[in-house]
C-alpha cells in the first residue's frame, strides 16, 4: 500500500503556532503548573499534522526548536526528535473535537491532588460556580460540568479508550483529569485553551477548599 505524500508544511504557520505554544508555556510555567519538565502542549497545523512539544523539554523555556511536527498517528514528520510521550492523547482530542485548535496538559499541585481525591468517584462535578461560565458553551452557574478522572496509565491506548468510552456515552467533555497526573483541556484557540485551563485550575481549588472547610 502506498501513502500519498503530505503537502509541504506551511513554515510560517508552524512558526506562529510554535510561538503561541512557547508563550502559553511561559505563562503556565510562571504559575508553577509545569514542574520538573512535566506537561505538554500542542496546536493544530492542518488536516494531516499538529505541532507538539518535544519530550522532556522544560515547558517554561520553550523556543521553536523545542516543538516538532507529528501526523495524526503521532509519527514524527521531518524530525528525528521524540515527540511528547503523551502525543496520542493530543491527536485523539484533535480527531474527536474538530473545532479544537490547541491543547494544554499541565501538572499543577492542585490538579494532582484533586485527581487523586476524586479518583474513586471517577469524576469532579462543578455546579454553582460563576466561573463555570469561562468554559465555552456554559452561560450560567446553574449548569453542571463534569470532568472525568481517568486511572493513570503509561500505555496511551488505555487512556484513549477511556476518553472514547466517555464520549461514546454521549457525555460532554471539556477537560479530563488523569489520576495522580494532571489535566488535559483544549479550545478553539490557544487563548481559549488558556482560559479553560485557568478556569479548571480555579474551580478545582474551590472544590478542594470546600472539602477542607466542610465539617
Ligand atoms: C516528568 S513528567 C512525566 C511525563 C509527563 O507526564 C509529562 O507530562 C511530560 O512528558 P513529555 O514526554 O511530554 O515531556
Ligand atoms: Zn503528563
TrEMBL record:
The transmembrane residues are: none
Q: State the InterPro entries in the record.
A: Aldolase_II/adducin_N (IPR001303), Aldolase_II/adducin_N_sf (IPR036409), MethylthioRu-1-P_deHdtase_MtnB (IPR017714)
HAMAP family (alphabetical): Salvage_MtnB
Tell me which cofactor or cofactors this protein depends on: Zn(2+)
Please give the GO cellular component terms listed in this UniProt entry: cytoplasm
What keywords sit in the KW lines?
Amino-acid biosynthesis, Lyase, Metal-binding, Methionine biosynthesis, Zinc
State the protein's name. Methylthioribulose-1-phosphate dehydratase
Q: What family does the entry list?
A: Belongs to the aldolase class II family. MtnB subfamily.
Keyword Cell wall biogenesis/degradation found:
no
Annotated GO molecular function terms are: methylthioribulose 1-phosphate dehydratase activity; zinc ion binding
Record-listed E.C. numbers? 4.2.1.109
Annotated Zn(2+) binding lies at 105, 107
The species this protein was found in: Frateuria aurantia (strain ATCC 33424 / DSM 6220 / KCTC 2777 / LMG 1558 / NBRC 3245 / NCIMB 13370)
Q: How is the cofactor bound?
A: Binds 1 zinc ion per subunit.
* UniProt pathway annotation: Amino-acid biosynthesis; L-methionine biosynthesis via salvage pathway; L-methionine from S-methyl-5-thio-alpha-D-ribose 1-phosphate: step 2/6
Q: Domain (Class II aldolase/adducin N-terminal): give its ranges.
A: 19-208
Reaction(s) catalyzed by this protein? 5-(methylsulfanyl)-D-ribulose 1-phosphate = 5-methylsulfanyl-2,3-dioxopentyl phosphate + H2O
Cross-referenced NCBIfam families: PRK09220.1 (NF006672), salvage_mtnB (TIGR03328)
Which Pfam families does the protein's record reference? Aldolase_II
